[in-house]
Specification:
The protein has one domain (17-82). The chain is elongated and about 75 Å long. The longest helix is centred in the last third of the chain and has 14 residues, at 66-79. The N and C termini lie far apart (62 Å). The chain has 93 residues and is an alpha+beta fold. The chain has two helices and three strands, in the order βββαα.
């Protein structure tokens, strides 16, 4: 397993995974460092998971997923006062 986060002190290091578990509601990996001490790193800072297909395909060109943008639009629409919400006009056949 490699530490991939650029600002982590162990960035770029190849370490042996000891265990992966949910610790205080955060997905973490546990590894032994040089002095033999057991330490934990957020799993998202490593390559322990395969790359997200969206990130691979978008190649950094898009930071927002369509589903996330639609959820945001729905949330914002729900925050709008009821009298100002958009209403779809029905058309008669």
């Amino acid at each position: 397993m490699r530490v991939t986060h650029p600002f982590h002190p162990l960035a770029g290091r190849e370490l042996d995974l000891v265990v992966r578990k949910n610790n205080w509601a955060e997905d973490r990996v546990f590894v032994f460092v040089d002095d033999g001490a057991l330490t934990s790193i957020p799993a998202g800072f490593t390559d322990v998971d395969p790359p997200d297909p969206f990130d691979v395909v978008s190649a950094g060109r898009s930071v927002f997923r369509v589903a996330d943008l639609l959820a945001l639009a729905s949330l914002l629409e729900g925050m709008r006062p009821a009298d100002r919400r958009r209403r779809v006009m029905r058309t008669s056949p």
